[in-house]
Design brief:
Layout lengths: L3 H4 L4 H11 L4 H8 L18 H12 L6 E2 L12 H8 L2 H4 L11 H18 L3 E2 L6 H15 L7 E5 L4 H14 L2 E5 L12 E5 L11 H9 L3 E5 L18 E5 L15 E5 L12 E5 L5 E5 L6 H4 L12 H39 L12 E5 L4 H10 L2 E2 L1 E4 L2 E5 L6 H11 L35 H13 L21 H4 L5 H4 L11 H18 L3 E3 L5 H18 L7 E5 L4 H9 L3 E5 L9 H11 L3 E7 L11 H10 L3 E6 L18 E4 L19 E3 L36 H33 L19 E4 L1 H7 L3 H10 L6 E2 L6 E4 L7 H22 L9 H4 L4 H4 L10 H5 L19 H6 L8 H5 L9
Parallel strand pairs: 1-12, 3-4, 3-5, 5-6, 6-7, 16-17, 16-18, 18-19, 19-20
Antiparallel strand pairs: 2-8, 7-8, 9-10, 11-14, 13-14, 15-21, 20-21, 22-24, 23-24
Helix pairs in contact: 2-23, 3-23, 4-18, 4-23, 5-12, 5-15, 7-12, 7-15, 8-9, 12-14, 13-14, 18-23, 19-20, 24-26
Keywords: Oxidoreductase, Pyridoxal phosphate
Organism: Kocuria turfanensis
Protein name: Glycine dehydrogenase (decarboxylating)
Length: 950
């Protein structure tokens, strides 16, 4: 059977009803009226014929079989791990977890917020620091974020220099070189075991466990750096920290690293959750998301994202970072892994890993093979003059991958699933026999070992059996709203179907168990899949080439802007450093521009929501030959197809600039128009929006960058390539060549099953659904902006402001009330304050669209009652929403509306009701009293029970 009816919500009969509502005879007429003729593409997409689910899975099996699954002992920042089946099945393969959205609306996100807080708590405990964020994208970019954080936090230092340990991971150094070069930071790479180089530094990056396995004593180096006025960041290993003294105990200001070895598969390089922790006093410079604890309207503890003033929508070019996402799903796995094993379980794994590494070292030295470092955790560096290639090949013949450090050295890293047989196979590759059991000579020195306790919170002891873990995860999922329960009508976020057939392949060992640095002959299948996907994406967008390396939309933006900047520099146009950005643009646009060393100039928005052409001309004239380009979103952030987009592109091109088209809204363009053909030079795409990779509670994301022919030389380079070393002018934006390769099979499956016809139908249906919602609500909440023919693109902005003025009921009140109806809120107050932006997507059927419409019309009646003076605002059901079961079942009820109106405002809710776990969360209280660790269980038990609801 065709996949298309599975993916599209409305069937033929429902499509007819919707078309009649919007006043179009058929989809062809609707699209012809909505999409400007000047950008419409008449040629069909040159994609393979669509496959059924079974056919696509069979085809992908053939591709996956071309990968060779080995025992992976390469290391270099990646470790083989065991994903407990209880976590794989109940998190990674559970739509309640992988289809949820970023927890911006805290009341319906308490489960994933608690899971992320568990991750933060584990990171804080193990690093010995006061705060941790809810994950970053990968270790290399996390180190880059730490460098920028130290620069912001250490403003009293006049230095622009940062010192970085030469023992750092090569991919970290490659990413750092590009990021520092872009913003004018002088990067000094040196062997910091010999002390700091001369001169002043605003920051120092130390490595606790070096790429070759050597373990450093940090205390003296940290003290020296502080004495010289520098802040200190430490790259570390969470599993090693179950044995080693923590960075915090040794004086570090910041700790970063990867949580991949806490149960997250190798995935050919990603997605993996990086972490960052810091001491008190630095929290307002911390990038990324931070889960904190506040209280709800009943005074009970409630989780929320803290310090949201750091979000890019508010601070734009002054944001702490351009990152507006995380690796939430992977962080949740890592946090659950820590809870499942607990302190003693993690320590036992670490001790076993070290014992096996010691066995390897013992066998090598007994056979006369020198071991370079006496102190190591899991990685042994062996000296084999002139024999490295032969040893690596001999190990591969035995089914084991190890790392060639150079022609004379080989490195071997032990992971959780490895055993004595794996170690003995590696020894045989060196020509060394298996040793006797004695390994005591390789014990870690007592001075390096930690003596303090960690993971003492009950969350790390209560869920140790599989039954307890299963029930805990179920209880958390039950607190949340995800796509498995309801439409998530978020504008600009495209929460469409994540089909089971698309998700299934990411768990196959041929994809999950491949090391990103495995020899190319072992990764033929992965590279074939990636080449096909990049080619398909290039055809869909009309560009010459695509790179899937950026592992988030923000990183795709950065890669695109770096391509523009590098292109101008290659032509000698070093003055072109100004980027024009419309005032309605997504906040990451401006933040990404700053990271590419570009100055932002804002272009005004006209009354109809389009780019103000007069202001554009004025800004182009004012900027002159400093114009690097413009960033536009198409369809626009206001949810319309702007007719003058080609004029905007031409004006910028005529002035010597480049055009960046933000691809966040590509869901309305597939098969209908191609940015690379109507004026774009570069775009980033969102595979976690348009191409079905699920949001996972706030990540993983994939943000490929697509470029025209003249920008192809400036795509992000491989951070592991030989020419990515010192002095190279490379700009990788992620630590792995293919970024989050492990989730690319999802998008491959979607395109393979949809084909050109299916992708085009997806766009057409998305446009129809948005216009249907807009038309059904026009008399109560009119759409603020429309394009040609009075139509919208794939989303519409509902204008609540007139009724808010009459009633005092805010758009936020409406969002909270929608929870009582069982809906996640639309996008609040972006891009226009006081409005809600709705994107229904192509995957929702007519019944679900009508359910949302009914909820919004019912809420309008409740607002109108306040406006008419029938109910006082402060006494209204809207101001008290959402309503918990505890409040509704209180012994007495003194509110101005009946319990039935609060709980069951529509009759169908009596058949299926989502019960929100907390009342309205107080944001200000959470920021004033920043708590970013798991509260004790007593905090919930001792909170005052709900009194008479009033």
């Amino acid at each position: 059977m065709s996949f298309l009816p599975r993916h599209l919500g409305p069937d033929a009969a429902e499509t007819g009803i919707m078309l009649e509502t919007v006043g179009a005879a058929d989809l062809d007429e609707l699209v012809a009226r909505a999409v400007p003729r000047g950008i419409a593409s008449d040629e069909p997409l040159p994609l393979p014929e669509p496959m059924s689910e079974h056919e696509a899975l069979t085809a992908l099996r053939r591709i996956a079989a071309k990968n060779r699954v080995m025992t992976q002992m390469i290391g270099q920042g990646y470790a083989e791990t065991v994903t407990p089946p209880a976590l794989r099945r109940n998190i990674l393969e559970n739509p309640a977890w992988y289809t949820s959205y970023t927890p911006y609306q805290p009341e319906i996100s308490q489960g994933r917020l608690e899971a992320l807080l568990t991750f933060q708590n584990a990171v804080m405990d193990l690093t010995g620091l006061d705060l941790a964020n809810a994950s970053l994208l990968d270790e290399a970019t996390a180190v880059a974020e730490a460098v920028l954080m130290m620069r912001r936090a250490n403003r009293r230092s006049g230095s622009r220099r940062v010192a970085v340990d030469s023992h750092s991971l090569p991919q970290t150094l490659a990413v750092l070189r590009g990021r520092c070069r872009a913003v004018g930071i002088d990067l000094v790479v040196a062997d910091l075991s010999e002390g700091l180089p001369e001169g002043e530094f605003f920051g120092v990056v130390l490595t606790q466990v070096g790429v070759d396995g050597d373990v450093a004593d940090l205390a003296e180096r940290t003290e020296q750096a502080h004495a010289q006025g520098a802040l200190v960041a430490v790259a570390t290993d969470l599993l090693a920290l179950t044995l080693l003294r923590s960075p915090g105990e040794q004086g570090a200001d910041i700790a970063v690293g990867s949580a991949q070895r806490f149960g997250v598969p190798l995935f050919f390089g990603g997605p993996h959750a990086a972490f960052m922790a810091c001491r008190k006093g630095l929290e307002r410079n911390l990038p990324g998301r931070l889960v904190g604890v506040s209280v709800d309207s009943s005074g009970r503890p409630a989780y929320r994202l803290a310090l949201q003033t750091r979000e890019q929508h508010i601070r734009r070019e002054k944001a702490t970072s351009n990152i507006c996402t995380a690796q939430a799903l992977l962080a949740i796995v890592a946090g659950a892994y820590a809870a499942y094993h607990g302190a003693d379980g993690l320590r036992a794994i670490a001790e076993r890993v070290h014992r096996l590494a010691a066995r390897l070292a013992e066998g090598l030295t007994a056979a006369g093979v020198p071991v370079v470092h006496d102190t190591f955790f899991d990685t042994v560096l062996a000296q084999v003059p002139g024999r490295a290639d032969a040893v690596v090949a001999a190990a591969a013949e035995r089914g084991v991958n190890i790392r060639r450090a150079d022609a004379d050295h080989v490195s071997v890293s032990v992971g959780e699933p490895h055993d004595e047989r794996d170690v003995d196979a590696v020894l045989a590759a060196f020509g060394a026999p298996a040793p006797e059991d004695g390994t005591a000579g390789w014990d870690l020195p007592a001075a390096l070992l930690r003596t303090d306790s960690y993971l003492a919170h009950p969350v790390f002891t209560l869920h140790r059996s599989e039954t307890a873990m299963m029930r805990w995860l179920r209880s958390l999922a039950d607190k949340d709203l995800a796509l498995d329960r309801t439409m998530i009508p978020l504008g600009s976020c495209t929460m469409k179907l994540n089909a089971a057939a698309e998700m299934e392949p990411i768990s196959w060992p041929e994809f999950a168990s491949i090391h990103p640095l495995a020899p190319e002959e072992q990764t033929v299948g992965y590279r074939e899949l990636i080449a096909q996907l990049e080619s398909w994406l290039a055809e869909i967008t009309g560009y010459a080439a695509v790179s899937v390396q950026p592992n988030a939309g923000s990183q795709g933006e950065l890669a695109g802007l770096l391509a523009i900047r590098r292109y101008h520099l290659s032509r000698g146009d070093d003055r072109r450093t100004t980027i024009l950005i419309p005032s309605s643009a997504h906040g990451t646009n401006a933040a990404s521009a700053v990271l590419a060393d570009l100055k932002v100039v804002v272009v005004a928005t006209a009354e109809d929501g389009s780019v103000d052409l007069d202001d554009l001309d004025a800004k182009i004239a004012a900027v002159g030959d400093e114009l690097a380009g413009i960033m536009i979103t198409y369809p626009s952030t206001h949810g319309v197809f702007e007719e003058q987009v080609t004029a905007v592109c031409a004006a910028v091109h005529d002035a010597g600039g480049q055009v960046y088209v933000d691809g966040a809204n590509l869901n309305a363009l597939m098969g209908l128009a191609r940015p690379g053909r109507f004026g774009g030079d570069v775009s980033h795409l969102n595979l976690h929006k348009t191409f079905c990779i699920p949001h996972g509670g706030g990540g993983p994301g994939v943000g490929p960058v697509a470029v025209a022919e003249h920008l192809v030389p400036f795509l992000p380079e491989d951070p592991a390539a030989a020419d990515a070393g010192a002095g190279a002018e490379t700009f990788p934006v992620s630590q792995a060549r293919y970024g989050s390769a492990g989730v690319l099979p999802i998008s491959w499956m979607y395109i393979a099953m949809a084909g050109a016809e299916g992708l085009t139908a997806s766009s057409r249906t998305a446009i129809l659904s948005a216009n249907y919602v807009s038309a059904r609500l026009a008399d109560v909440f009119p759409t603020l902006y429309t394009g040609p023919g009075g139509l919208v693109a794939h989303e519409c902005i509902l204008d609540l402001r007139p009724l808010t003025k009459a009633s005092g009921v805010t758009a936020e009140d409406v969002c909270k009330r929608l929870v009582d109806y069982g809906f996640h809120a639309p996008t609040l107050a972006f891009p226009v304050a006081g409005t809600l932006m709705v994107e229904p997507t192509e995957s929702e059927n007519l019944a679900e669209l009508d359910r949302f419409v009914a909820a919004m019309r019912s809420i309008h009646a409740e607002m109108q009652a306040v406006a008419d003076g029938e109910v006082a605002l402060e006494d209204s059901v809207l101001r008290h929403a959402p309503h918990t079961a505890e409040v509704l079942t209180a012994d007495s009820w003194e509110r101005a509306y009946p319990r039935s109106q609060a709980a069951y405002p529509l009759p169908e809710l009596r058949l299926a009701k989502y019960w929100v776990p907390v009342g309205r969360v107080e944001n200000a209280a959470g920021d004033r009293n920043l708590v970013c660790s798991c509260p004790p269980i007593e905090a919930f038990a001792s909170a005052a029970p709900a009194e008479a609801a009033r």
